[in-house]
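2024-03-11 09:14:02 INFO receiving multi-entity request
2024-03-11 09:14:02 INFO entity count = two
2024-03-11 09:14:03 INFO echoing inputs for audit
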Amino acid sequence: MLDVIAAFVGELRSAGIGISVTEHVDAAQAIGVIALEDRELLRETLAATLVKSQDHRAAFDVAFDIYFSTRRALNAGGEFGDGEFDHAEADDGDDDVLGVGEGVGHRREMSTEELMRMLEDSMLHDDIALRNRVVQESVTRFAGMTPGRPVGGTYYLYRVLRSLDLETLQQRIIEQEGTARAPLGTLQQRLILDDVVRRIRGLKLAIEAEIRRRLVEDRGAEALARSVRKPLPEDIDVMHATREEIHALERSLLPLSRKLAVRLMRKRRHGRHGPLDVRATMRHSLSTGGVPIDPKYKHPRPSKPEIFIIADVSGSVASFARFTLHLVYALGSSFSKVRSFVFVDGIDEVTHHFEEALGPAEAANRVNEEASVVWVDGHSDYGHALSDFHERFSQDVTSRSTVMILGDARNNYHQSSAWVVADLQKRARHVFWLNPEPQPYWNSGDSIIAEYAMHCDSITEVRTLRQLEAFIAELA
Amino acid sequence: MSSRFTGPDVVAEQLRAVDYLPDNAIASTVFLADQLAKPVLVEGPAGTGKTQLAKSVAQITGARLIRLQCYEGLDESKALYEWNYRKQLLRIQASQISGEDQAWSDLEGDIFSEEFLLTRPLLEAIRADDPVVLLIDEIDRVELETEALMLEVLSEYQVSIPELGTVTAKQTPMVFLTSNNTRELSEALKRRCLFLHVGYPTIEREREIIQTRVPGISSELADQVARIVASLRDIDLRKTPSVSETLDWARTLVILGQETVSEHETLETLHVLLKYQSDIDKVRNEFLATKK
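2024-03-11 09:21:47 INFO inference complete, emitting structure
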């Protein structure tokens, strides 16, 4: 068991979760005092001792399912059972309708329509036992798994989901639930919808777990863990994130910005005093016979930077720009003023969208709909956007301003207009460039970052939330 | 090592008996905390029963609850101990007046003795003779530097006082730290604790919580309340309703004499559940748009 724990800890470490030796020892101690047959207890035990942040829990759960799943299958209770999967056991219930567990010959006889009907039944009555049997059957039937292939199972999952056609299923169930309990107000309709969505989500997770379990049986835990290892939310590359990953990022953005705001506020409040106040010091020195023992300081007036964000929102880097705007506005109180501009080949100010909108997410939507950023053809043109900026807004940039330009500097071979950046550098206190591309790609193809680079205070590669957080913390 | 429980299911059972409904993770972690004599760091959104967990554990173990509420600016003299210097001064003056010619070293030993020590929550928990549960509430509110104060207490269950020496715990107290996760806690602190995330409960568990905590509620109403709240948590609100707000809402509905939740009552009582006008408007639009 200790070997398994050690391997498991190794896997978590390679997934990016820092685990100290003490924590490893704790885990080893902890499994000494619990009953090992209980898989959920083991899971919670290891989680409590090894994973010290909820953000890492998802990665932990994936790894746990892989390392501690061997020969354990879904049982009728809906949770993972602790015994070996037993066909007879699955069959001795009231499941004459199914015949799933009765061996290969019988299995062939069930048609796809029957399977779909069973699935619909299980969803309609929220029958977990039935659902799990359907899951097993449909994975066998549709996934088309080839033994020994070094894959993480995403494709198998896709194949099963495509065959089951969950969207139609969801629609049908909602209709059936609706007619069963008519008449309905909007509230009830909404509740039914949410309920069904939850059931479908459960089904998807069950399918995923089943595929993973079979993959472990096929290739062993370590090999599989390597294939399915996913980056932690703060390490996801924003530019290449999938839709789910973007969603995960959005969720972790809010707590992140809150944390950052608290940290900056503390930084401002502590450890700084203003310049020496000579008058006050002299007056106080009267009580010590004119010897200035106790120096007095003026109240600190930390200057808050004024931020200009100029963001490329063309397809390739849009999501990245959104995150940065999100984060900067969440920190509104740390800056005296934030003005934001977005461009593709034309430029437009979007500050008012953020000021009027209720939340950053809504603001981002409004920016997408209303800002007029396309000048000619909707391909990024840094040259035109920057000279346009210079013409319309550059007189507002003063020595108190910090200018942040976000973009990959892929200019589609247009003019660079780097002189605008040079001019901005003269006017502003700082000019920073954040580039969401990995550094090795800079200046390759149509990227002309080097031309701008010589006029910027720094160029930073910012591809993940962690890097972005570090940069913003430095800035404020 | 102290062992108050024989298994996680016992923990769960006993917590249930005092109207706290634990899930799997909570029961297992409390059990482990007891077995390994380690503090538990409880993290999660506000109003999900983190503080209540410590109180309930104190109740089932028959222990005294010692609570340290953290805030910005909390320091040693408020958390650990302080010398009662007024009393010390008095003692010195008294010895001068009575004309006792006490040697300085005697006097010093005298005024730095336990008699002149004011114990604060952490030291009190360590020195207690009876079983105690120490609750360090909202640890994320103190500065990073102050966290370090607690490390000795958390790992060794002892406090070092320069004038007196080290005070070691006579019995291992159960320690709970809660955090709303407004800042990252230090690695050193996290390493010494077991980690427990208390999130929003599942629909089934929330329904049970409502039924135990709100007397006189019909099971149908409890079920509806739990489902509505679960749906509300799915949409993007400024402040998602917590368990305690859910309970308030359920109580309101019971007082209003509702058997089931209808759209009208939901509209009228939404302010119990949601604390921002913009959230209320949003929910009205999404959930209760009247079709015409």
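2024-03-11 09:21:48 INFO post-check: Confidence is low (pLDDT under 50) at residues 71-107 of chain A.
2024-03-11 09:21:48 INFO post-check: The first strand of chain A starts at residue 72 and ends at 74.
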